Amino acid sequence: HGGNSSYDLSFKILLIGDSAVGKSSLLVTFISNSVDDLAPTIGVDFKIKLFTVGGKRLKLTIWDTAGQERFRTLTSSYYRGAQGIILVYDVTRRETFTNLSDVWAKELDLYSTNQNCVKMLVGNKVDRESERVVSREEGIALAKEHGCLFLECSAKTRENIMEVPSLLEEGSTVVK
Ligand code: GDP
Predict the structure, then answer these.
(1) What is the pLDDT along the chain (176 residues), one digit of tens a residue?
(2) Measured in Å, how far apart are the chain's first and last C-alpha atoms?
(3) 44 CB-near residues (< 8 Å, 6+ apart)
(4) Is there an atom of ligand 1 within 6 Å of 19 CB?
(5) Coil, helix or strand for 7?
(6) What is the best residue among 18, 19, 25, 26 to mutate for testing ligand 1's pocket, by most ligand atoms within 8 Å of CB?
(7) Strands 9-16, 84-90: parallel, antiparallel or unpaired by DSSP?
């Protein structure tokens, strides 16, 4: 894709979820081994990451709602052309999980018209295991319900963070 031959595949990835679940932290953690400098988040922000998986050079453009989740309903333009949507909740706050199933998943069904879009449900902050209120099994069940891949991780300890590209690669083989 694209006239620029510096990558083989290009993805637009969205991060969705309630305020303070760790979307920005996941973005920073995921991007931190790239050369990009982080800009302050104003409006919809995005970061570009180039990396190689399975011999293919991937370009990820990751969009962060950057506080717009306060307005709850994002416009369809935010979703347009997205190949990957990462739905994030905080395993220590149940409302962030129920909001995903009640609000975000419905909005996603409404706006993400790309049938090949890879959806991933991510339970963040597993480093705070003693405060966990949403079980792994509940996460798996919600992911199944909405046809999402599933991952539990911690932006703080980086646990499972590097699973993201491999899951997207798995998705890209579905697309291609
Ligand atoms: P956003 O509003 O969804 O973008 O959430 P932020 O990335 O701003 O994170 C909200 C708060 O949660 C911040 O204080 C982060 O330091 C903290 N946080 C994010 N990820 C983790 C994590 O995996 N573990 C822990 N313990 N705290 C986290």
Answers:
(1) 444 557 777 778 788 888 888 887 887 776 554 434 444 444 556 667 676 667 777 777 777 654 444 444 556 667 777 878 888 999 999 999 998 887 666 767 766 666 777 888 999 999 999 999 999 999 999 999 888 889 999 988 888 876 655 555 554 443 32
(2) 12
(3) 63, 64, 65, 66, 68, 78
(4) yes
(5) coil
(6) 25
(7) parallel
Tokens 């993201």, residue located: 164
Residue 22 Cα, ligand 1 centroid: separation in angstroms?
4
For residue 100, CA distances in Å to 48, 134, 137, 147 come to 25, 13, 16, 14
Distance from the alpha carbon of residue 162 to the mean position of ligand 1, in angstroms: 17
E-strand ranges in 17-163 read 45-53, 56-64, 84-90, 118-124, 149-152
C-alpha atoms less than 13 angstroms from C-alpha of 32 in its C-beta half-sphere: 12
Whether this model's ipTM surpasses 0.90 comes out as yes
Query: Which residue is listed with tokens 């306060």?
Result: 70
Taking the whole predicted model, whether its pTM rises above 0.90 is answered as no
